[in-house]
Amino acid sequence: FSEHVVDAVGSGDALLSYATLSLYVSKNEAISSILGSLAAAVECEYDGNIPVTPEHVLKKIDRLEKKAN
């Protein structure tokens, strides 16, 4: 899902945290794997290990949705 990879540091942390939390809430493996992958993609687009906020992930979803349409 990453549009421009700058640095992959922290992408595994982002994937694991978002996938785990969303699996706990939704009980849906597909949703949790997609949200985890989106969080990892966001992390890869920044230099260094930055906190990935829900707003970052929502913006990523919006951009992908616009591309799909």
Task: Describe this structure as you would to a colleague.
The protein has 69 residues and is mostly helical. The protein is 68% helix and 0% strand. The longest helix has 16 residues, at 11-26.
Give me the number of helical elements. Answer: 3
User: What fraction strand?
Assistant: under 5%
Helix-residue proportion = 55-70%
Q: Find the count of extended strands (DSSP E, 2+ residues).
A: 0
- The parts where pLDDT drops under 50 for at least 5 residues are none
Kindly report the average pLDDT value: 96
Largest sheet: none
Given the C-alpha coordinates, what overall shape results? globular
What is the helix/strand order?
HHH
Instruction: Please give the radius of gyration in angstroms.
Output: 11 Å
Counting helices, strands and paired strands, the structural category is mainly alpha
Please report the distance between the alpha carbons of the first and last residues. Answer: 16 Å
Keywords summarizing the entry:
69 residues; mainly alpha; 3 helices; 68% helix; 0% strand; globular
How would you summarize what this structure contains?
The protein has 69 residues and is mainly α. Helices cover 68% and strands 0% of the residues. It has helices at residues 11-26, 29-44, 54-68.
Give the arrangement of secondary structure elements:
Blueprint: H1 11-26, H2 29-44, H3 54-68
Helix pairs in contact: 1-2, 2-3
